[in-house]
Amino acid sequence: MNGIVNILKPPGMSSHQVVGFLRRALQTKKIGHTGTLDPGASGVLPLVVGNATKLSGYLTEFEKTYVAELTFGISTTSQDASGDTVELKTGFSISPQEFAEALASFQGTIWQVPPMASAIRVGGQRLYELDRRGVSIPREPREVQIYSISIERIWSEGESLGFGTRVLLRIVCSKGTYIRTLCHDLGEKLGVGGHMSALVRTASGPFTTRDAYTLEEISTLAGAGDYSFLLPMEEGLPGWVRVKVHPLVEERIGHGNFILPEHFMDVPSTLTVGEEVVLMSIDGEVLALAEIKITDQLICQPFRVFARG
Fold this sequence. Notes:
Helix content is 19%, strand content 34%. It is α+β, with helices and mostly antiparallel strands. It folds into 3 domains: 3-62 and 205-234, Pseudouridine synthase (2-Layer Sandwich); 64-204, 2-Layer Sandwich (Pseudouridine synthase); 239-305, PUA domain (Archaeosine Trna-guanine Transglycosylase, Chain: A, domain 4, Roll), CATH 2.30.130.10.
């Protein structure tokens, strides 16, 4: 069983718990995720099954889209609603112009200090494990990309933003971005504090909430022997050229040996040296990822091979 499952993760479950659920539903152990989603968050969580686990590194690189709620005036230990309140600031008034300027300063390349309540390893230990023991250690800032950040809605009693104002933000960003840290840093920049009070991941690369399955739906379908929710592996490689090869060279590919363009059953209009392609069997099974190279002739060299069947 090989493929990708686009799960709509509910709040209250860790990514590891969702993986455990799918392992039980599909009765297979070879399942992994492609980037964790905080237990309190909901939304898109693509999981890879069987041979597709070899694609997890590619899926992790996808840009992510989030809808986050930022609440002003309340700072927490975890930078989100799950933490304890560490500071309250009241009596302030932020104009829409001030907020828009602060928001704009976070678009593009920014640096973030990862929160203690995160899965990053330092000295072999997860930061959240240290955080649970009340230990805080210095963390190096990390560079991330905020491709776009926009206001979806503001809940405020007046025109200005004050204590308890909630703002709904839509954020498109690179992997490794901590949205709760972004909300915290926004509050700090404005001098009023703030925390992320809710989070939904609406997209991870080509996978969106529109096409995601709930755990209940997966349980029902799998119980009936219907695995239509299992997407083909190539769905995790959007933009890659797909090439079907002659059956006689499948064994060569399986051993990691190069093939020639003449072994292609459907030749792309152009083949560029350095281009990466997906090699597929006639019946549509992914055989390998390969690179177009040139030695004394043009060749197609597999660099990641998948077991047939």
